[in-house]
């Protein structure tokens, strides 16, 4: 894909028509990148549309652009990341870096040993995901589900979806089938409780995934699990 700068436009109009970037996108366009009239940019809507546009009137509050081409993409990611809530800094890393690796959705969990908090900044999480998509040239925004308890998630998940469970007590295990769609379950830094682990052991369509001999932080485990799955499923290819 082109290295043209990318901007967010939730409602991309048809080819040949004009649109206005919002104040945040316009400020980045004019004050940060200093783009001029005639510059080419890309805009994304997070739902699979990638449009090429020409800057007509660079304005720090309402930059006017003209759509010159539109491409439609189909989402390729079939990985749904389910993870125990961590402290805010680690949580930011999970949303940013796992978006770069491409996931279909995030489901934060409140577990017995996870970080507990009363309020969640879902607007900040979405902003992190959008910025990561723009940087990594991803055209689909992962769905961010509201945090829920481990037990509520177990009750509401699609029971026949394949589940890969990462657990530091099962380090040397690998599943036989890497194909998607699948849910990848990462425990909190405190690990799974015995009650949670026993429940997972009895879950249909669940396999265990070891992440090596080192003890990993939760955010590192999320990245390691995604890399292992994408490599074994053929999504990561060297020398291609």
Coarse morphology: elongated
Number of helices: 6
Return the domain count. 2
What is the overall pLDDT average? 92
Termini gap: 17 Å
Give me the CATH superfamily of the largest domain. SPOUT methyltransferase, trefoil knot domain
Determine the fraction of residues in helical runs and give it as a percent range. Answer: 25-40%
Note poorly predicted spans: none
Instruction: Predict the CATH topology of the largest domain.
Output: Alpha/beta knot
Radius of gyration: 20 Å
Percent range for β-strand residues: 15-25%
Instruction: Count every beta strand, where a strand is a DSSP E run of 2 or more residues.
Output: 12
Major β-sheet, in short?
Answer: 7 strands, parallel
Category by helix and strand content: alpha/beta
- Secondary-structure arrangement, i.e. CATH architecture of the largest domain: 3-Layer(aba) Sandwich
Order of helices and strands: EEHEEEEHEHEEHEEHEH
CATH class of the largest domain: Alpha Beta
Summarize the structure.
With 240 residues, the protein is α/β, with parallel strands linked by helices. Helices cover 29% and strands 25% of the residues.
